[in-house]
Specification:
The structure is a homodimer.
Chain A: E1 4-9, H1 20-28, E2 31-35, H2 36-43, E3 49-53, H3 58-70, E4 74-79, H4 88-98, E5 107-111, H5 116-124, E6 125-126, E7 132-136, H6 144-156, E8 160-164, H7 173-186, E9 191-196, E10 204-209, E11 222-226, E12 232-236, E13 239-244
Parallel strand pairs in A: 1-4, 1-5, 2-3, 2-4, 6-13, 7-8
Antiparallel strand pairs in A: 8-11, 9-10, 9-11, 12-13
Helix pairs in contact in A: 3-4, 6-7
Chain lengths: 253, 253
């Protein structure tokens, strides 16, 4: 048997951001496992059998893929963005540790992808152009206390911050609490970029401050990019301003 | 005139990680500006005139590209990885602010790329599978004090950490100081992954702890990935262990 598992980042969505490697591996797969919208995206690049599943079923999905590979399948597990950034890679490794010891002998590789924060940052300019932190606001798998601790640390280090998973249908208060915390720790004037559906027809970008951001615009498809104290705007006539964090960081300013 | 500037991330190096969008834009460019090795990488995808320059000349390079675009050129400014992560995007925006006011009216866009940390993390497993920080250890443009402040904040938040630019021919002490600081703040047993030349023939990965890492292996082409307190190894027979950070973060552990 020559089964394998490839954990693939599809990038933020459009074909222009899918890596040639990911495309090749999808073409070789016999079975594709993923959250339904990502499995549907993968369909364009493969003749494999699709095994879509719901959000929240990550470990069950990972175990199914590992069991398929053990029986000889070429199992592609797909994530949006990069599978190693709040995607399926860690879920597959958790499942490997929990499951059949023979799974550790399987041929398993992660195929990197363009993470959504990079596409969102490019749309705005270069808000992550200096040191930054990446934090998921979902408290489904971690306590809110560690999220608060990390937001505080990000402010203490004067990092720019990319916030994943700011809200869902059932999680709407968390992002308000996070923004209130950031406002207290970093100041109300801190620049924030809201980016939704980047690279898709419904793409939307809003540039605001922590004080002026309308949090009702934030949903599952939104990424938030918070500037550091040095993040700046370049005004442009007839276009959105460019948001960027300079490479320089003067000692005394 | 219909000049433009596109600030392009080439990805970590191999063609398999170059986005279709970056490839298309390179094919349309009339002039390519970049640090010599990246300009040479771009040569495979374009008939444009190449304008290679030395490392450290970022603002001069950016101004040259903007001046070319002002005269009608289709100017591609290339970076390795993603241009918005310690790449040319912020340098171009700094140059826009410093230079001719007409430059702000130019058609300027950032074309995102796969950042090197994502490819390095995929090679190791999923060390960045939970919240993480991204820090450049270069003190060429920022004081060492802010780097230390950010390393301390990263430990205080129990983030995983991607360290860019750990060393160069002339900067060899900084990474030793950074590792000593991390060892004091996070403990000597913290997992660290050294990844060099990821995706190239000379690719090398070393998995160690802060205490056991041989810093003489670190050079300009190295990325370091430091685990959080939760980062784990999965031992595999005849293969490098998988390094991953679980998605779960238990309150009491």
């Amino acid at each position: 048997m020559s089964g394998w598992v490839r954990i693939i980042g599809l990038g933020p969505g459009p074909e222009k951001w899918l890596s040639p490697e990911a495309r090749d591996v999808l073409a070789q797969a016999s079975d594709v496992f993923g959250y339904t919208p990502y499995a549907q995206t993968a369909r364009a690049y493969t003749k494999a059998a699709l095994h879509p599943s719901d959000n929240g079923d990550e470990i069950a999905r990972a175990k199914e893929a590992l069991a398929f590979a053990q029986r000889g399948a070429r199992a592609a597990v797909v994530s949006g963005g990069d599978a190693g950034v709040f995607g399926m890679a860690s879920a597959v490794f958790e499942a490997m540790e929990q499951g059949d010891a023979a799974w550790r002998a399987l041929d398993v590789e992660v195929i990197p992808g363009m993470s959504a924060m990079l596409a969102a940052a490019a749309l705005a300019g270069a808000p992550l152009g200096h040191d930054f932190c990446v934090i998921s606001l979902s408290d489904r798998l971690k306590p809110w206390s560690i999220i608060e601790r990390r937001l505080r640390a990000a402010c203490a280090g004067d990092f720019a911050i990319a916030l994943y998973n700011p809200a869902s249908h059932t999680r709407t208060e968390q992002v308000k609490n996070a923004i209130a915390l950031l406002e207290r720790e970093c100041g109300a004037e801190r620049i924030i970029v809201l980016a939704s559906n980047v690279g898709r027809a419904q793409e939307r970008m809003v540039i605001a401050t922590l004080a002026t951001l309308d949090s009702s615009l934030i949903d599952m498809r939104t990424l938030l990019l918070v500037g550091s104290s040095r993040t700046r705007l370049i005004a442009r006539e007839g276009k959105a301003p460019l948001v960027y964090t300079p490479r320089f960081y003067a000692e005394d300013s």
